[in-house]
Write a structure and sequence with these properties.
Number of domains: 2
Structural class: alpha/beta
CATH superfamily of the largest domain: ABC transporter type 1, transmembrane domain
Largest sheet: 6 strands, mixed
Number of strands: 12
Strand order of the largest sheet: 6-9-10-3-11-12
Length: 576
Amino acid sequence: MTLLRLSLRFVRPYWRSVTAVVLLQLIATMAALYLPTLNADIIDKGVVKGDPDFIWRTGGMMLIVCFIQVIAAVAATYFGARASMSAGKDIRRSFYRKVDALPSLDLARWGMPTLITRNSNDVQQVQMLLLMTFNFMVSTPIMCIAGIIFAVRVDAGLSWLIWVSVAVLFVVVGILVWLLLPMFRIMQERIDGVNGVIREQIVGIRVIRAFVREKFESKRYDDANAALTQISVRVGNVFVLMFPIIMLILNVATVAVLWFGGHRVDAGDIQIGALTAFLQYLLQILVAVMMGVFMAMMIPRAMVCAERIEEVLSARSSAKAGAGAGPVPANGLVEVQNVTFGYPGAEKPVLNDVSFVAQPGEVTAIVGSTGSGKSTLVSVIANLFTPQSGQVRIGGVAVDGLSREQLAGVLGLVPQRPYLFSGTIASNLRFGRPDATDDDLWEALRVAQAEGFVRAKDKGLDERVAQGGTNVSGGQRQRLCIARALVAHPKVFLFDDSFSALDVATDARLRRALADSTGDAAVIVVAQRVSTIREADSIIVMDDGRVVGRGTHDELVESNETYRQIVESQLSLEVA
């Protein structure tokens, strides 16, 4: 039912093409069914009676019918391909938009490799089933029903051969589908596994080579590839049996018609031409059923793929986003009120009753040990994660009441792992503000301490950037991501450990420039190095998901044991 619902939903917009396919297939099939009757007339009324004029007239009629059949079949194939390919395009587009709308927390339950497989291989399987359906499955029932009517009209006494042959074919189909359905489910999962290994190895190629683990990783890929090959061979073995069995049924049916029909001809119950027509009708019916069998082999895999696609399309986002009809925050005042958040399946929350205020025009730093919940808190502020309790407000407006577009216009996020998209430096910087001028870009680069290395490049702002920013260094990538956030001019800046790849001198220059350029925006900085946040207006200290201290650097050194331990682990007592 999932496959049927998915197909109907995306084929419905192309009902005109589908209607054309049905009408044209009807014409082509009826023309094909009329040919045996004409052939029987040539034998019984032309050859037997020695009437050459009748043979020529009927032969000419057969040529006209064949021409009509070919034209109708070609046109039906065109409209069928157009409808199926368009439906596949729409499925891929809907899948992409759904993935784009879901928060990272929801996407993590599937993983990137399987999402790629579902939007490529799985959609292709459904698309091919639709194509084959329009090309064959529309004509198959027409051929079977009309063929039986024509065959019974020719000789009802031999009609039992049709029922026996078709029944045997359906039994064979049922057994093969029952064998293939679980195999196709395993096959799709193992395709996910191969894609997962490849993606992990490509992303982590430097680590693999640094630790000389090429042989181990090759073994991992070989194991995943062998597992896929094993199930593919099992599927192939079933397909190998299919066509010999079907051909055996066809040949046995032909022999049976000739044997029993020969006796009826000898008894005068049927003419030779009629027997020939009956044999042709039987073969047409069985060939149509055989095409149905071939389609039935594709249905189990398409069913599995449709379920995997629909699982993503029907997923509900765990993050709340408003319709955008409410007020837009007037300033960058960030209020985190009693926020508690835990990941699905976790034993305890990552954030426990977290509350603080980040004032516009001030720098609020967040520090804490690894695993204290700093990055998770940033994701909650950005409405990437929805807290189980509590609320985040910007400018007095709850973030879950803002649309994604409104929130993007208010908040600029520089993530812990900086990422650049394939294109140019300019296209990456304009990601949050497409109408930014070149002067705006250069100003953002100046503040982010990236102007120097960009001007040193041959094409400047038009220099090409590889996917993920792999053709620039880690520090350059971080500075370009900071510049990207600056170009958007948000009311709130979120820097999630965004200065870790910078040397101390560059870090100091960047922070001084930020202080002059961020103006009335609230700046929230997650940092590991205490030396970089000493001058922050307010420092929030986190430990085990809770706020255990807040104040300036000097205040916390005097009064907060957790902060003092962090300071002492990084700085000498003289600096502290």
